[in-house]
Write a structure and sequence with these properties.
The chain is α+β, with helices and mostly antiparallel strands and about 240 residues long. It has two domains: about 120 residues, no CATH class; about 100 residues. It is about 45% helix and about 10% strand. It contains twelve helices and six strands. A six-stranded mixed β-sheet has the order 1-2-3-4-6-5. A hairpin with a 6-residue loop joins strand 2 and strand 3. The protein is globular.
Length: about 240
């Protein structure tokens, strides 16, 4: 199902490699979220990720083989990743400053858009479960932070405490393309590539700037943040 998504990311990386005069494997590592999509993140996936990049580089002129390699190297989720997932939401443990990052990914097997109005209560239940877990297990957490294209959507912002939603603003830092905060807009809730977004992205590739490749995406990732007490007050 994700072959079209893999192919689109490889096209993006190929274009970036030509613009930046870097090898394709460097461009893939820098400008795609294939490492996360293949579940090769962290120390446990490091060696297989390096092997994947080497094989892709060897198949530099064969897109079909590159896409096939993506399917070959895709791994199942690790226990740690599953443990921190709560329905559509997951989180990264607090960093040294106490900042906890939240993420949103539609799970497999759902029957309607997870952000449809009829699913709002289920999504808030996901958030409540996550925040309750954080309150019990993450005493260092002081702040909640999110960076995602989804903050462009009222259907997403309405799930959160008012103070958090009101904080949404343009990111004032370089954006990374190795997660779903930007790349996620390319897929619908069925994990299929959206033709209109794909077409807009491909048209804009010629305008790509090496220093800011994320600007060619139709929607830009926005940032939101608030004290974690705001979430505790609403969800626990």
């Amino acid at each position: 199902m994700l072959e079209d998504y893999f192919s689109l990311q490889l096209k993006f990386a190929t274009h970036y490699a030509a613009k930046a005069a870097v090898p394709l494997d460097v461009a893939i590592d820098r400008c795609t979220n294939l490492r996360r999509r293949l579940n090769l993140w962290g120390d446990t996936g490091g060696s297989r990720w390096k092997l994947f990049l080497n094989k892709v580089k060897s198949a530099v002129d064969d897109r079909a083989e590159q896409v096939a390699l993506c399917a070959e190297f895709q791994q199942s989720l690790s226990y740690i990743e599953v443990k921190r997932s709560f329905g559509c939401f997951s989180y990264d443990p607090p960093d040294a400053y106490g900042t906890l990052r939240i993420h949103f990914v539609a799970p497999d097997g759902i029957n309607s858009s997870p952000l449809a109005i009829e699913n709002s209560s289920a999504r808030r239940a996901d958030l409540q479960e996550l925040i309750s877990h954080v309150q019990r297990t993450e005493p260092r957490a002081t702040t909640v932070r999110g960076v995602s294209w989804l903050y462009n959507l009222q259907a997403y912002k309405r799930l959160f405490p008012t103070a958090y939603s009101a904080s949404v603003q343009s990111a004032r830092f370089p954006l990374h393309l190795n997660g779903s905060s930007t790349w996620g807009q390319v897929l619908n809730w069925r994990q299929e590539v959206k033709p209109d977004v794909r077409d807009q992205l491909l048209v804009r590739l010629n305008d790509m700037e090496v220093a800011t490749p994320w600007l060619v995406f139709p929607l830009q990732a926005l940032a939101a943040t608030s004290q974690i007490e705001v979430f505790y007050d609403q969800f626990t």
